[in-house]
Amino acid sequence: MAEDTLRFYSNSTRVVSTLFDLTFEFRRQAPLPEEEETATEGVTAFTVARCQVSVSLQHAKAIAAILTKHIKNYEAAHGVTLPLPEDMQAIWSEWMEGGKNG
Fold first, then answer.
1. What is the pLDDT of residue 101?
2. Whole-angstrom Cα distance, residue 61 to residue 11?
3. More reliable by pLDDT, 46 or 15
4. Are 21 and 55 contacting, i.e. CB atoms less than 8 angstroms apart?
5. What is the pLDDT of residue 38?
6. Cβ atoms 42, 73 nearer than 8 A
7. In whole angstroms, what is the distance from residue 24 CA to residue 54 CA?
8. Strand, helix or coil at 100?
9. What SS3 class is residue 29?
């Protein structure tokens, strides 16, 4: 990788699509310090957008296929099933079973 290549860490992603493309907004989510939680009425985390990447829908579909392959290979190699929140697990399970994906 070139020295001038920008690198980001993301633990939160927002995805927005149009008729022609899809935009990934990679974000960094972090907990608020306890003293700020009280001031923000129970909000316990904040999210900062770090990077936006727009791709064609065809490219997005290729990315989805590549990511799926890598995740399945990782789980098989390590004998694990990576946990997901319940709503995301339902989407993943439906997709893996060949059903419609929401």
1. 47
2. 21
3. 15
4. yes
5. 54
6. no
7. 6
8. coil
9. strand
Q: Which two tokens stand for residue 48?
A: 């900062």
- pLDDT at residue 83, rounded to an integer: 94
For residue 34, what pLDDT is reported? 67
Helices (H), 1-102: 34-39, 57-78, 86-96
Please give the Cα distance from 60 to 23 (Å, whole number).
Answer: 9
Angstrom distance (rounded) from CA 96 to CA 99? 8
Identify the CA nearest to 23 among candidates 66, 65, 52, 45. 52
Q: Are 88 and 71 in contact (CB under 8 A)?
A: no
Give the three-state DSSP class for 32.
coil
Residue 33 DSSP symbol: P
Q: What is the pTM of this model?
A: 0.73
Instruction: State both tokens at 92.
Output: 């993943």
Neighbouring-strand partners of residue 24: 15, 53
d(CA 6, CA 11): 17
Q: Is the pLDDT of residue 102 over 70?
A: no
Q: Band of the pLDDT at 66, cuts 50, 70, 90?
A: very high
